[in-house]
Design goal:
The chain is an alpha+beta fold. It has 14 helices and 18 strands. Strands 7, 11, 12, 13, 14, 15, 16, 17 and 18 form a nine-stranded mixed β-sheet that branches. A five-stranded mixed β-barrel has the order 2-3-4-6-5.
Length: 475
């Protein structure tokens, strides 16, 4: 009892001081992004990371260390007397010493103690060796290892920057972020490119199955798919919150291994109530693209340099809006430069889209007023031409179509007639037009295609940590 009383009588200030000291000791490791600055000179630091280069000199060993916090490495100078025998390229280390200014005017860490946390025997199957450049196709064979490469590490940091910028921009514009479901009973686009979902436990299915119900319907009482879009759910929420967005994974079951397609990718989708026309929606999409790109090039300049990505000229230009018919006329005048035939009323091919980008010298362009029969059921007819849909596509360099959107069909009777030919039960979607309905619109932007556009990355598989495509789903 006396012992307990003694503890309770310790002054609170002393207790807090000791607690702070313990926390500082626990978190004494510094990030290289914080250390690689002149303000750190003269301070003692512990650095933990991976060896990216190693040079043996007469009295010292020089190593470049990266911890993934930034694109720059930190040079560490190690006296040969304290160099661990198992220190190699690729090994993970913990090193402590003083930050100093090197003879070359760059910050360096002069090590006093160093330990190897994890050895790396390059000759024992490690796929990378120092001072050698690898193609993205080679690196892609080692998805679990490629975050250690400089180029992919920089991509992941840019991806994080863009993710934060998208949320910040949309919230500054009054949008509310919504978590739309990954599991859904609807195929939004109606193209049938969906992945079915059912439990793998056959015993569970058998215990839950009702008479006359298929195995696919046993768990949820309906067929369920991985979402191809959160749009329909956002249309429900926007009729209560006015401006909403979602940012999450979507899935498409397409047998395509092209440089622009993935089976799993991320989409930014917005919905806006009380929209007047498609031009208003186009302005919102243009603002998003420019705002996020400005932020990424401001905050991620060093990582973008690794990819040789200059700031796009189009950031300071207004995006033109042309009709589908005008786009067709441009393409018809250049059929001798196109390999694919052009047929009015059909969607533009990727070759056609990229030719239009060449025609505009790489400045993104909106195409509007598509033939209505080429667009999904939820798109509204254009007010000035009932044969056209009030829809828009934004074409961009590298990828062609980057953003797609439309005015949503808000007429109950018209939507009812469209839905009667579709098999999914969308009564709830129709009911949105029955009570306090408003005109609305929305657009979606593929996140990986956005990264391709601003970074000049040819293959979409190199913009996402773990790409999935037909015949490939590792990890």
């Amino acid at each position: 009892m006396a012992f307990v009383k003694l503890i309770l009588e310790v002054p609170r200030s002393l207790f807090l001081a000791n607690s702070i000291a313990v926390r500082r000791n626990v978190y004494s490791c510094a990030r290289i992004s914080e250390t690689n600055v002149s303000d750190a000179v003269g301070k003692r630091r512990i650095i933990k990371g991976w060896v990216k280069a190693l040079r043996n000199m007469k009295e010292n060993v020089f190593i470049d260390v990266s911890d993934g916090s930034c694109s720059e490495h930190l040079q560490v100078v190690i006296p040969k007397s304290v160099k661990p025998s198992n220190l190699t390229y690729g090994s993970s280390i913990s090193v402590e010493g003083d930050i100093a200014m090197g003879p070359n005017g760059r910050v360096e860490l002069r090590a006093e103690t160093i330990s190897v946390v994890g050895e790396c025997v390059v000759s024992d199957g490690y796929p990378f060796v120092p001072r050698k450049k690898y193609s993205q196709e080679y690196i892609r064979q080692y998805l679990h290892m490629r975050p250690r490469t400089n180029s992919f590490g920089s991509l992941l940091r840019i991806r994080d920057l863009a993710t934060a910028a998208i949320g910040d921009h949309l919230r500054s514009r009054g949008f509310v972020g919504i978590h739309t479901p990954v599991l859904t009973s609807n195929d939004c686009e109606g193209a049938g490119e969906v992945f079915s979902v059912r439990p793998a436990n056959e015993g569970l299915l058998k215990s839950m199955k009702k008479e006359g119900v298929s195995d696919e319907e046993a768990y949820f009482n309906t067929k369920v798919f991985l979402t191809v879009s959160g749009q329909l759910q956002l249309e429900s929420v926007v009729r209560g919150l006015s401006k909403v967005f979602s940012f999450g994974p979507t899935f498409r079951a397409e047998n395509s291994k092209s440089r622009l397609h993935l089976s799993e990718f991320y989409m930014i989708e917005t919905e806006i109530a009380f929209t007047k026309n498609i031009e208003e929606l186009a302005k919102e999409a243009e603002l998003l693209l420019k705002s996020v790109t400005n932020y990424v090039f401001d905050k991620g300049a060093s990582d973008l340099r690794i990819h040789g990505a200059p700031e796009p000229d189009w950031l300071h230009k207004t995006f033109d809006i042309i009709s589908y018919d005008e786009a067709i006329k441009i393409l018809e005048k250049n059929t001798d430069r196109l390999s694919l035939p052009l047929k009015y009323g059909e969607s533009l091919s990727k070759e056609h889209e990229l030719f239009l980008m060449h025609h505009t010298s790489g400045v993104p362009i909106f195409i509007v007023d598509f033939p209505k029969d080429s667009k999904p059921f939820y798109m509204k007819k254009a007010s000035h031409d009932p044969t056209k849909a009030a829809a828009m596509d934004l074409l961009a360099p590298i990828v062609g179509e980057l953003i797609g959107g439309s005015m949503r069909e808000d007429n109950y009777d018209v939507l009812q007639s469209k839905l009667s030919s579709l098999t999914p039960n969308l009564d709830w979607y129709l009911e949105l037009r029955k009570y306090g309905n408003v005109p609305s619109s929305g657009f979606g932007m593929g996140f990986e295609r956005y990264l391709q556009t601003i970074m000049g990355i040819p293959n979409i598989k190199d913009t996402i940590p773990f790409p999935r495509w037909p015949h490939n789903c590792k990890f």
